Amino acid sequence: MNKVTVKINGEEDYIVNIGSDLLKDAGSIISEVHAPCRVAYITDFTVGAHYTATVVDSLKDAGFEVFIFAFPAGESSKNMETYEKILEFLADNEITRSDLIVELGGGVVGDLAGFAAATYMRGIDYVQIPTSLLAMVDSSVGGKTSIDLESGKNLCGAFHQPISVICSVDTLETLEKKYFDDGVAEIIKYGMLGNEKILKILHSCVENHDNLYFALKPFLSEIVEESISTKLNFVKSDVYDNGKRQFLNLGHTIGHAIEHASRYAIPHGHAVAVGMCSIARAGEKMNITEEGTANNVTALIRACGLPTSTIISPVDLYNSALSDKKRRGGEISLVIPVKFGECEIKKFKIDELKNILTLGVK
Amino acid sequence: MNKVTVKINGEEDYIVNIGSDLLKDAGSIISEVHAPCRVAYITDFTVGAHYTATVVDSLKDAGFEVFIFAFPAGESSKNMETYEKILEFLADNEITRSDLIVELGGGVVGDLAGFAAATYMRGIDYVQIPTSLLAMVDSSVGGKTSIDLESGKNLCGAFHQPISVICSVDTLETLEKKYFDDGVAEIIKYGMLGNEKILKILHSCVENHDNLYFALKPFLSEIVEESISTKLNFVKSDVYDNGKRQFLNLGHTIGHAIEHASRYAIPHGHAVAVGMCSIARAGEKMNITEEGTANNVTALIRACGLPTSTIISPVDLYNSALSDKKRRGGEISLVIPVKFGECEIKKFKIDELKNILTLGVK
After folding, report:
1. What does each C-alpha distance from B111 to B47, B48, B307 come to in angstroms?
2. What is the mean pLDDT of residues A208-237?
3. Is the CB of B158 inside 8 Å of chain A's CB atoms?
4. Per the CB 3.0–4.6 Å rule, which of A13, A30, A137, B16 could disulfide with A227?
């Protein structure tokens, strides 16, 4: 088992435990950071069916009293209604400030249970057991929790750090291919932000594979650890999302526009993959990006089975980007690759984005 | 206008502005701490009817664009439904992270709008304009925001500091007498915790008055300032509610039990008033409290027109106290006056509370 200690300015440290077959040890891992107490275990029906028995038995063996809450899998559950149900469940089972939430699942479960933990009694402790690659390499660092509003995704939430994270990479075996690929896009991003080990593993695995999961399987613990370390490097000292953390948005401005314009039919990682290719192409045409970078990025992303371009028009993408309510004033910061493994943040007037989107389209 | 700077460990400082007739200057006061932006102005129908025009005009004059959200007054609005409506209102009006919430009202408006500010886009700035005495002297320091669940009051919330507070004491003129008295109970508490100026003003005003509000009127700015300074003294370095801040619970353990047992028919301040008398009486009988203290406390509280005892039985109060889900383990900390102006925190086994309640009953 590998451990990454997450130290973020002004927040309590916690450990991300990474390895295979860790779920049966969840109870003992958690008992290292929390005394026996009442545990609200939160999961979705789909992933919960695979792993709940193992985790709950392990928690009980370690002396925790467990109360189980499960809800239907999928983004459509990530709303005010499920949030309220979780809160009432916590209250009905007399969970107090000295008790614990343990969540097992992908991003939806993590975001929901994390937001409940952030706000129930103004904040109680929680443990993340991410079971999707994206949740392992992205959600496990940064403390972002959220739910969707009618008006848009992730518009309501809080920053709340877990007290422990358990990444058991064997759980990725039950993950649907498109969700696995979603996580791979994020891993490629960490490579492009400078993690050479990740790039090396990816390049060695992606050629001539029949199934990306099986090709990457021997390296998953290392990939997850390297990804978390890279993200941590950008998030540290910047937990409130203002400065260096912006590098993590590589591919995300265009990616979010693609997701939005497709009404979320295109999954996050697929959209980010296209976003990374597009910004590299536009960067080359603006003489910011070293020649050949776009080709290299595109080749890697294509080899991972992810898309490299979109049929959505630059005008539609521009309108989607404008409607993103997080946009601050009339300027936009874009993360642009200078070369493979090195990026820069550049500010543009919002109307310059239309031109950049046109340059990046293919 | 008096100013108290609220500096709490690890949080941004902000100023509480205290004076009379400040609402017409709200815009210029706020423009000192926030650039012109979109403002979501949140209030309730009752208090909003008195002051909205003045505040909104002042905000517009200072260059803010204002969007108004109002809801029915009263605790029954402090729920998930109103919270969700506020969030959707913010999104519909394209409030971003660089915009602002300004709330005007008593505790319910402050708690709701503050929780929305704490969680919309994971936290945006907000300004409090408290119009009840309790909100001025209590909610303006500490950053507590919350909503009620079906299962209990204030079970969901967050800590979120305002960027500015405007206490315009003339707004207390439209406050119902029982709500004004509610605030007075909290002020007496600050006196008992050691603020001699407050005690002096109260003692000089409460004798031979026909109307407590008019008797206290010339001193309201001073009382609010002194109360806030006293609260601040206990909250500083302890924003997460663990140590010294516990002194602020004087009268509140029994007070909460009274509120709960009466199903909230007895208002907060009235219950706290009885709680302070009860714990002083019990303290004397346990030889913790100086003889005569209970009589002095009771006399002051009675002179303010607040109740000093309850007809609810000690057994019912005990059961209500037990059902308080915030109770940590088998112990309870009680704040007990040693003498007028000095208190101590003592730990008791939870079952000793029944005896203490019996000793305190009258």
Report:
1. 15, 16, 26
2. 90
3. yes
4. A137
